[in-house]
Amino acid sequence: MNAGAAEQRVQPNQKPTHVTVPVALRSRAYDIHVGRGLLARAGELCTPVLKQRRVFIVTDSNVASLYLTPFTASLAAVGVRADHVTVPAGEASKDFTHLEQVLDAMLKAKCERGTMIIALGGGVVGDLAGFAASVLLRGVDFIQVPTTLLSQVDSSVGGKTGINTKVGKNLVGSFHQPRLVLADTDVLTTLPRRELLAGYAEVAKYGLLDDVGFWTWLEANGPTALAGGEKSHDLLRDCIVASCQAKARIVAADEKESGERALLNLGHTFGHAFEAEMGYGGALLHGEAVGIGMVLAFEMSVRLGLCPPADVMRIRSHFAAVGLPVDPPKQGPRGVITPAMLMAHMTQDKKMKDGALTFVLARGIGKAFLTTDVPPRVLEETLQAALTG
Ligand SMILES: NC(=O)c1ccc[n+]([C@@H]2O[C@H](COP(=O)([O-])OP(=O)(O)OC[C@H]3O[C@@H](n4cnc5c(N)ncnc54)[C@H](O)[C@@H]3O)[C@@H](O)[C@H]2O)c1
Ligand SMILES: [Zn+2]
Protein backbone atom coordinates (compact mmCIF):
# COMPACT_ATOMS: atom_id res chain seq x y z
CA MET A 1 0.00 0.00 0.00
CA ASN A 2 1.35 3.45 -0.80
CA ALA A 3 2.05 6.09 1.82
CA GLY A 4 -1.07 8.11 2.33
CA ALA A 5 -3.29 5.45 0.79
CA ALA A 6 -6.48 4.81 2.70
CA GLU A 7 -6.91 1.39 4.20
CA GLN A 8 -9.11 -0.92 2.17
CA ARG A 9 -11.46 -2.34 4.80
CA VAL A 10 -13.79 0.66 4.80
CA GLN A 11 -17.54 0.35 5.31
CA PRO A 12 -19.78 2.11 2.76
CA ASN A 13 -20.29 5.80 3.57
CA GLN A 14 -17.56 5.69 6.20
CA LYS A 15 -14.35 7.64 6.13
CA PRO A 16 -11.18 5.51 5.96
CA THR A 17 -10.26 4.44 9.49
CA HIS A 18 -6.54 4.58 9.07
CA VAL A 19 -3.61 5.43 6.83
CA THR A 20 -0.64 3.12 6.27
CA VAL A 21 2.93 4.36 5.87
CA PRO A 22 5.38 1.73 4.58
CA VAL A 23 9.00 1.75 5.79
CA ALA A 24 11.08 0.43 2.89
CA LEU A 25 13.89 -1.52 4.51
CA ARG A 26 14.11 -4.57 2.21
CA SER A 27 13.92 -7.71 4.41
CA ARG A 28 13.18 -5.56 7.45
CA ALA A 29 10.39 -3.54 5.77
CA TYR A 30 7.28 -2.88 7.86
CA ASP A 31 4.07 -0.86 7.96
CA ILE A 32 3.04 1.95 10.27
CA HIS A 33 -0.75 2.17 10.67
CA VAL A 34 -2.02 5.55 11.86
CA GLY A 35 -5.62 6.35 12.80
CA ARG A 36 -8.49 5.97 15.23
CA GLY A 37 -9.59 2.82 17.03
CA LEU A 38 -6.46 0.79 16.24
CA LEU A 39 -6.01 -0.55 19.78
CA ALA A 40 -9.42 -2.20 19.55
CA ARG A 41 -8.36 -3.77 16.23
CA ALA A 42 -4.90 -4.82 17.45
CA GLY A 43 -5.68 -8.55 17.23
CA GLU A 44 -6.73 -8.38 13.59
CA LEU A 45 -3.88 -6.01 12.62
CA CYS A 46 -1.13 -7.93 14.45
CA THR A 47 -2.14 -11.46 13.41
CA PRO A 48 -0.46 -11.37 9.95
CA VAL A 49 3.00 -10.86 11.53
CA LEU A 50 2.66 -13.32 14.44
CA LYS A 51 4.52 -16.65 14.32
CA GLN A 52 2.73 -17.97 17.42
CA ARG A 53 -0.72 -17.27 18.83
CA ARG A 54 0.88 -15.68 21.87
CA VAL A 55 2.62 -12.39 22.60
CA PHE A 56 4.45 -10.77 25.49
CA ILE A 57 3.52 -7.14 26.26
CA VAL A 58 5.79 -4.61 27.95
CA THR A 59 3.94 -1.54 29.25
CA ASP A 60 4.18 1.10 31.97
CA SER A 61 2.00 1.76 35.01
CA ASN A 62 0.06 4.69 33.49
CA VAL A 63 -0.61 3.03 30.16
CA ALA A 64 -1.46 -0.32 31.79
CA SER A 65 -4.25 1.21 33.84
CA LEU A 66 -5.74 2.93 30.77
CA TYR A 67 -5.22 0.52 27.90
CA LEU A 68 -3.87 -2.91 28.85
CA THR A 69 -7.30 -4.52 29.35
CA PRO A 70 -8.86 -3.39 26.03
CA PHE A 71 -5.61 -4.19 24.22
CA THR A 72 -5.35 -7.77 25.53
CA ALA A 73 -9.12 -8.23 24.95
CA SER A 74 -8.64 -7.37 21.29
CA LEU A 75 -5.86 -9.99 21.06
CA ALA A 76 -7.92 -12.57 22.94
CA ALA A 77 -10.79 -12.02 20.52
CA VAL A 78 -8.65 -13.52 17.73
CA GLY A 79 -7.26 -16.28 19.96
CA VAL A 80 -3.93 -14.66 20.85
CA ARG A 81 -2.78 -15.15 24.47
CA ALA A 82 -0.89 -12.26 26.07
CA ASP A 83 1.49 -12.26 29.04
CA HIS A 84 2.79 -8.92 30.24
CA VAL A 85 5.15 -7.01 32.48
CA THR A 86 4.53 -3.47 33.74
CA VAL A 87 7.39 -1.09 34.59
CA PRO A 88 6.93 2.14 36.55
CA ALA A 89 6.07 5.12 34.31
CA GLY A 90 8.98 7.47 33.64
CA GLU A 91 12.49 7.72 32.20
CA ALA A 92 14.03 6.00 35.25
CA SER A 93 12.68 2.66 33.97
CA LYS A 94 15.03 2.81 30.99
CA ASP A 95 17.93 1.32 32.94
CA PHE A 96 19.82 -1.95 33.49
CA THR A 97 17.70 -2.88 36.52
CA HIS A 98 14.43 -2.70 34.60
CA LEU A 99 15.97 -4.30 31.51
CA GLU A 100 16.89 -7.27 33.70
CA GLN A 101 13.38 -7.39 35.21
CA VAL A 102 11.79 -7.30 31.77
CA LEU A 103 14.09 -10.04 30.40
CA ASP A 104 13.50 -12.20 33.50
CA ALA A 105 9.73 -11.81 33.10
CA MET A 106 9.97 -12.82 29.43
CA LEU A 107 12.04 -15.89 30.26
CA LYS A 108 9.81 -16.89 33.19
CA ALA A 109 6.82 -16.66 30.83
CA LYS A 110 8.76 -19.10 28.58
CA CYS A 111 8.97 -16.74 25.63
CA GLU A 112 10.40 -18.52 22.61
CA ARG A 113 12.12 -17.31 19.44
CA GLY A 114 8.70 -17.11 17.77
CA THR A 115 6.99 -15.15 20.55
CA MET A 116 6.19 -11.57 19.53
CA ILE A 117 7.16 -8.85 22.03
CA ILE A 118 4.81 -5.85 22.04
CA ALA A 119 5.79 -2.42 23.37
CA LEU A 120 2.59 -0.71 24.57
CA GLY A 121 3.47 2.79 25.76
CA GLY A 122 5.58 5.86 25.09
CA GLY A 123 9.21 6.12 24.04
CA VAL A 124 10.46 4.77 27.35
CA VAL A 125 8.58 1.49 26.93
CA GLY A 126 9.41 1.36 23.20
CA ASP A 127 13.15 1.78 23.78
CA LEU A 128 13.25 -0.66 26.72
CA ALA A 129 11.05 -3.35 25.16
CA GLY A 130 12.74 -3.01 21.76
CA PHE A 131 16.18 -3.42 23.32
CA ALA A 132 14.99 -6.38 25.40
CA ALA A 133 13.56 -7.98 22.24
CA SER A 134 16.85 -7.46 20.41
CA VAL A 135 18.84 -9.41 23.02
CA LEU A 136 16.26 -11.97 24.24
CA LEU A 137 17.33 -15.39 22.89
CA ARG A 138 19.70 -13.43 20.57
CA GLY A 139 16.84 -11.45 19.10
CA VAL A 140 13.09 -11.84 18.70
CA ASP A 141 10.54 -9.81 16.73
CA PHE A 142 8.62 -6.93 18.27
CA ILE A 143 5.68 -4.64 17.53
CA GLN A 144 5.49 -1.00 18.58
CA VAL A 145 2.18 0.32 19.86
CA PRO A 146 3.23 3.90 20.68
CA THR A 147 0.85 5.83 22.95
CA THR A 148 2.47 9.29 23.10
CA LEU A 149 2.68 11.76 20.23
CA LEU A 150 6.47 11.73 20.57
CA SER A 151 6.67 7.97 20.23
CA GLN A 152 4.15 7.92 17.34
CA VAL A 153 6.16 10.41 15.27
CA ASP A 154 9.68 9.54 16.31
CA SER A 155 10.86 6.81 18.66
CA SER A 156 8.65 3.97 17.34
CA VAL A 157 9.95 4.49 13.80
CA GLY A 158 13.47 3.70 12.69
CA GLY A 159 14.57 0.86 14.93
CA LYS A 160 16.75 2.60 17.49
CA THR A 161 16.35 0.98 20.90
CA GLY A 162 18.26 1.40 24.12
CA ILE A 163 18.61 2.29 27.76
CA ASN A 164 20.36 4.94 29.83
CA THR A 165 23.46 4.36 31.97
CA LYS A 166 25.07 6.36 34.77
CA VAL A 167 27.32 7.99 32.16
CA GLY A 168 24.54 9.24 29.90
CA LYS A 169 21.29 8.69 28.03
CA ASN A 170 20.79 6.08 25.30
CA LEU A 171 24.44 4.97 25.38
CA VAL A 172 23.64 1.25 25.38
CA GLY A 173 21.31 -0.07 22.71
CA SER A 174 20.82 -1.64 19.32
CA PHE A 175 19.27 -1.15 15.92
CA HIS A 176 16.27 -3.47 15.90
CA GLN A 177 13.41 -2.70 13.52
CA PRO A 178 9.84 -3.46 14.63
CA ARG A 179 7.66 -5.76 12.51
CA LEU A 180 4.69 -3.38 12.71
CA VAL A 181 3.73 -0.05 14.28
CA LEU A 182 0.18 0.78 15.42
CA ALA A 183 -0.27 4.49 16.16
CA ASP A 184 -3.81 4.98 17.52
CA THR A 185 -4.73 8.67 17.66
CA ASP A 186 -7.57 7.99 20.14
CA VAL A 187 -5.07 7.32 22.94
CA LEU A 188 -3.69 10.84 22.62
CA THR A 189 -6.86 12.18 24.29
CA THR A 190 -5.60 10.93 27.68
CA LEU A 191 -2.08 12.24 27.22
CA PRO A 192 -1.19 15.20 29.47
CA ARG A 193 -1.12 18.40 27.39
CA ARG A 194 2.53 19.08 28.18
CA GLU A 195 3.46 15.65 26.77
CA LEU A 196 1.35 16.30 23.65
CA LEU A 197 3.16 19.60 23.04
CA ALA A 198 6.56 18.01 23.63
CA GLY A 199 5.72 15.48 20.89
CA TYR A 200 4.64 18.30 18.62
CA ALA A 201 8.18 19.75 18.75
CA GLU A 202 9.39 16.58 16.98
CA VAL A 203 6.58 16.97 14.41
CA ALA A 204 7.71 20.55 13.74
CA LYS A 205 11.28 19.26 13.34
CA TYR A 206 10.36 17.47 10.10
CA GLY A 207 9.12 20.75 8.60
CA LEU A 208 12.16 22.70 9.74
CA LEU A 209 14.49 20.02 8.38
CA ASP A 210 13.55 19.78 4.74
CA ASP A 211 9.89 20.55 4.13
CA VAL A 212 8.88 24.21 4.23
CA GLY A 213 5.46 23.23 2.80
CA PHE A 214 4.76 21.03 5.84
CA TRP A 215 6.02 23.79 8.13
CA THR A 216 3.61 26.29 6.54
CA TRP A 217 0.78 23.73 6.91
CA LEU A 218 1.70 23.39 10.60
CA GLU A 219 1.61 27.17 11.09
CA ALA A 220 -1.97 27.11 9.78
CA ASN A 221 -3.20 23.86 11.38
CA GLY A 222 -0.96 23.10 14.38
CA PRO A 223 -2.98 25.11 16.94
CA THR A 224 -6.24 23.34 15.92
CA ALA A 225 -4.52 19.93 15.87
CA LEU A 226 -3.47 20.46 19.48
CA ALA A 227 -6.74 21.98 20.68
CA GLY A 228 -8.59 18.67 21.20
CA GLY A 229 -12.04 17.80 19.83
CA GLU A 230 -13.23 16.12 16.64
CA LYS A 231 -11.14 18.20 14.23
CA SER A 232 -7.91 17.56 16.04
CA HIS A 233 -8.04 13.76 15.46
CA ASP A 234 -7.79 14.13 11.70
CA LEU A 235 -5.20 16.89 11.90
CA LEU A 236 -3.07 14.95 14.38
CA ARG A 237 -3.33 11.90 12.13
CA ASP A 238 -2.07 14.06 9.25
CA CYS A 239 0.79 15.33 11.44
CA ILE A 240 1.75 11.76 12.41
CA VAL A 241 1.51 10.44 8.84
CA ALA A 242 3.67 13.28 7.46
CA SER A 243 6.20 12.79 10.26
CA CYS A 244 6.39 9.01 9.79
CA GLN A 245 6.75 9.44 6.03
CA ALA A 246 9.62 11.89 6.58
CA LYS A 247 11.36 9.69 9.12
CA ALA A 248 10.77 6.53 7.08
CA ARG A 249 12.34 8.14 4.02
CA ILE A 250 15.43 9.25 5.93
CA VAL A 251 15.80 5.91 7.75
CA ALA A 252 15.41 3.96 4.49
CA ALA A 253 18.24 6.02 2.99
CA ASP A 254 20.55 5.68 6.01
CA GLU A 255 19.40 3.00 8.46
CA LYS A 256 22.45 3.05 10.75
CA GLU A 257 23.08 6.81 10.78
CA SER A 258 26.24 7.04 8.72
CA GLY A 259 25.05 10.27 7.08
CA GLU A 260 21.63 11.78 6.33
CA ARG A 261 19.90 10.23 9.37
CA ALA A 262 21.95 12.52 11.61
CA LEU A 263 19.81 15.41 10.28
CA LEU A 264 17.07 14.08 12.58
CA ASN A 265 19.20 15.43 15.42
CA LEU A 266 18.19 19.00 14.58
CA GLY A 267 17.95 20.82 17.91
CA HIS A 268 19.20 17.77 19.81
CA THR A 269 22.81 18.76 20.55
CA PHE A 270 21.52 21.88 22.29
CA GLY A 271 18.45 20.08 23.66
CA HIS A 272 20.38 17.18 25.20
CA ALA A 273 22.71 19.64 26.97
CA PHE A 274 19.74 21.40 28.61
CA GLU A 275 18.07 18.07 29.47
CA ALA A 276 21.26 16.82 31.12
CA GLU A 277 21.67 20.07 33.06
CA MET A 278 18.04 20.01 34.23
CA GLY A 279 18.42 16.42 35.43
CA TYR A 280 15.74 14.40 33.50
CA GLY A 281 13.37 14.78 36.45
CA GLY A 282 10.47 16.21 34.44
CA ALA A 283 11.57 19.86 34.81
CA LEU A 284 12.27 19.91 31.07
CA LEU A 285 10.77 17.23 28.79
CA HIS A 286 12.79 15.89 25.85
CA GLY A 287 10.49 17.49 23.27
CA GLU A 288 10.54 20.82 25.11
CA ALA A 289 14.35 20.71 25.11
CA VAL A 290 14.34 19.88 21.39
CA GLY A 291 12.01 22.82 20.66
CA ILE A 292 14.35 25.18 22.51
CA GLY A 293 17.32 23.49 20.82
CA MET A 294 15.86 24.03 17.35
CA VAL A 295 15.41 27.75 18.08
CA LEU A 296 19.07 27.84 19.18
CA ALA A 297 20.26 25.94 16.09
CA PHE A 298 18.49 28.51 13.88
CA GLU A 299 19.82 31.39 16.00
CA MET A 300 23.36 30.06 15.61
CA SER A 301 22.74 29.74 11.86
CA VAL A 302 21.72 33.43 11.79
CA ARG A 303 24.83 34.35 13.77
CA LEU A 304 26.96 32.53 11.17
CA GLY A 305 25.27 34.52 8.39
CA LEU A 306 23.62 31.39 6.97
CA CYS A 307 19.93 31.93 7.73
CA PRO A 308 17.58 34.93 7.43
CA PRO A 309 16.65 36.31 10.89
CA ALA A 310 12.97 36.37 9.84
CA ASP A 311 12.94 32.53 9.88
CA VAL A 312 13.87 32.45 13.57
CA MET A 313 11.01 34.85 14.29
CA ARG A 314 8.62 32.53 12.42
CA ILE A 315 9.73 29.55 14.50
CA ARG A 316 9.53 31.45 17.78
CA SER A 317 6.08 32.80 17.03
CA HIS A 318 4.66 29.39 15.96
CA PHE A 319 6.05 27.62 19.04
CA ALA A 320 4.68 30.39 21.26
CA ALA A 321 1.29 30.15 19.50
CA VAL A 322 0.93 26.44 20.34
CA GLY A 323 2.33 26.85 23.86
CA LEU A 324 5.81 25.36 23.49
CA PRO A 325 8.62 27.02 25.47
CA VAL A 326 11.01 28.94 23.20
CA ASP A 327 13.59 30.23 25.67
CA PRO A 328 15.93 27.95 27.61
CA PRO A 329 15.78 27.54 31.39
CA LYS A 330 18.30 29.83 33.06
CA GLN A 331 18.47 28.02 36.41
CA GLY A 332 18.97 24.31 37.01
CA PRO A 333 19.55 22.07 40.03
CA ARG A 334 23.22 23.23 40.08
CA GLY A 335 22.26 26.93 40.04
CA VAL A 336 22.64 29.47 37.24
CA ILE A 337 23.25 27.70 33.90
CA THR A 338 26.37 28.89 32.02
CA PRO A 339 27.57 28.26 28.46
CA ALA A 340 30.53 26.31 29.89
CA MET A 341 28.21 23.88 31.70
CA LEU A 342 26.26 23.24 28.50
CA MET A 343 29.37 22.90 26.36
CA ALA A 344 30.73 20.30 28.81
CA HIS A 345 27.57 18.20 28.24
CA MET A 346 27.88 18.62 24.48
CA THR A 347 31.39 17.17 24.37
CA GLN A 348 30.06 14.02 26.11
CA ASP A 349 27.39 13.58 23.44
CA LYS A 350 27.71 10.32 21.49
CA LYS A 351 27.38 12.29 18.25
CA MET A 352 30.98 13.52 18.63
CA LYS A 353 33.06 12.55 15.60
CA ASP A 354 36.86 12.51 15.86
CA GLY A 355 36.56 14.90 18.80
CA ALA A 356 34.51 17.46 16.81
CA LEU A 357 30.93 18.42 17.62
CA THR A 358 28.40 17.84 14.85
CA PHE A 359 25.63 20.39 14.51
CA VAL A 360 22.56 20.50 12.34
CA LEU A 361 22.34 24.08 11.06
CA ALA A 362 20.01 25.64 8.50
CA ARG A 363 20.09 28.03 5.56
CA GLY A 364 16.43 28.70 6.30
CA ILE A 365 13.27 26.81 7.22
CA GLY A 366 13.38 23.44 5.42
CA LYS A 367 17.06 23.79 4.53
CA ALA A 368 18.97 21.95 7.25
CA PHE A 369 22.46 20.53 6.83
CA LEU A 370 25.16 18.86 8.93
CA THR A 371 28.44 20.50 9.86
CA THR A 372 31.39 19.99 12.19
CA ASP A 373 32.55 23.49 11.38
CA VAL A 374 31.20 25.71 14.15
CA PRO A 375 33.80 27.94 15.83
CA PRO A 376 33.55 27.40 19.65
CA ARG A 377 33.35 31.19 20.06
CA VAL A 378 30.12 31.34 18.01
CA LEU A 379 28.63 28.45 20.00
CA GLU A 380 29.49 30.21 23.25
CA GLU A 381 28.05 33.54 22.03
CA THR A 382 24.83 31.82 20.93
CA LEU A 383 24.42 30.17 24.34
CA GLN A 384 25.40 33.34 26.21
CA ALA A 385 22.82 35.42 24.31
CA ALA A 386 20.09 32.83 24.98
CA LEU A 387 20.92 32.52 28.67
CA THR A 388 21.01 36.26 29.29
CA GLY A 389 18.33 37.35 26.82
N1 LIG B 1 14.45 5.27 19.79
C1 LIG B 1 14.34 6.47 19.27
O1 LIG B 1 14.59 6.68 18.09
C2 LIG B 1 13.91 7.59 20.15
C3 LIG B 1 13.59 8.83 19.59
C4 LIG B 1 13.10 9.83 20.42
C5 LIG B 1 12.97 9.60 21.78
N2 LIG B 1 13.30 8.39 22.30
C6 LIG B 1 13.14 8.12 23.73
O2 LIG B 1 11.76 8.21 24.05
C7 LIG B 1 11.65 8.54 25.43
C8 LIG B 1 10.59 9.61 25.60
O3 LIG B 1 9.37 9.10 25.12
P1 LIG B 1 7.96 9.73 25.58
O4 LIG B 1 8.03 11.19 25.45
O5 LIG B 1 6.93 8.97 24.88
O6 LIG B 1 7.97 9.47 27.16
P2 LIG B 1 7.30 8.36 28.10
O7 LIG B 1 7.34 7.02 27.49
O8 LIG B 1 7.95 8.52 29.43
O9 LIG B 1 5.78 8.84 28.20
C9 LIG B 1 5.49 10.09 28.78
C10 LIG B 1 4.45 9.94 29.90
O10 LIG B 1 3.16 9.75 29.32
C11 LIG B 1 2.53 8.58 29.88
N3 LIG B 1 1.67 8.06 28.83
C12 LIG B 1 2.03 7.39 27.72
N4 LIG B 1 0.99 7.22 26.92
C13 LIG B 1 -0.08 7.79 27.53
C14 LIG B 1 -1.44 7.97 27.16
N5 LIG B 1 -1.91 7.57 25.98
N6 LIG B 1 -2.26 8.60 28.05
C15 LIG B 1 -1.78 9.06 29.24
N7 LIG B 1 -0.49 8.95 29.61
C16 LIG B 1 0.34 8.33 28.76
C17 LIG B 1 3.67 7.72 30.31
O11 LIG B 1 3.28 6.80 31.30
C18 LIG B 1 4.66 8.75 30.83
O12 LIG B 1 4.33 9.13 32.12
C19 LIG B 1 13.01 8.97 25.90
O13 LIG B 1 13.56 7.94 26.69
C20 LIG B 1 13.80 9.12 24.62
O14 LIG B 1 15.18 8.85 24.78
C21 LIG B 1 13.76 7.39 21.51
ZN1 LIG C 1 14.12 13.69 19.94
CATH level 1 class label of the largest domain? Alpha Beta
Order of helices and strands: EEHEHEHEHEHEEEHHHHHHEEHEEH
What count of structural domains? 2
CATH architecture descriptor text of the largest domain:
3-Layer(aba) Sandwich
Attached small molecules: nicotinamide-adenine-dinucleotide, zinc ion
Number of strands: 13
The dominant shape is globular
**Quick check: average pLDDT?**
93
Unreliable stretches covering 5 or more consecutive residues: 1-12
What composes the largest sheet?
A: 7 strands, mixed
Alpha-carbon distance between the two ends = 50 Å
Number of helices: 13
Structural class: alpha/beta
Strand order of the largest sheet: 1-2-9-6-5-3-4
Strand content: 15-25%
What percentage of residues falls in helices of 4 or more residues? 40-55%
Question: What does the secondary structure layout of this molecule look like, with pairings?
Answer:
Layout: E1 18-23, E2 30-35, H1 42-46, E3 54-60, H2 61-76, E4 81-87, H3 96-108, E5 116-121, H4 123-135, E6 142-146, H5 149-155, E7 160-163, E8 172-175, E9 180-184, H6 193-210, H7 212-225, H8 230-253, H9 268-278, H10 286-303, H11 309-322, E10 331-332, E11 335-336, H12 339-346, E12 359-362, E13 368-371, H13 376-388
Parallel strand pairs: 2-9, 3-4, 3-5, 5-6, 6-9
Antiparallel strand pairs: 1-2, 7-8, 10-11, 12-13
Helix pairs in contact: 3-4, 5-6, 5-8, 6-7, 6-10, 7-8, 9-10, 9-12, 10-11, 10-13, 12-13
The chain binds nicotinamide-adenine-dinucleotide (NAD) and zinc ion.
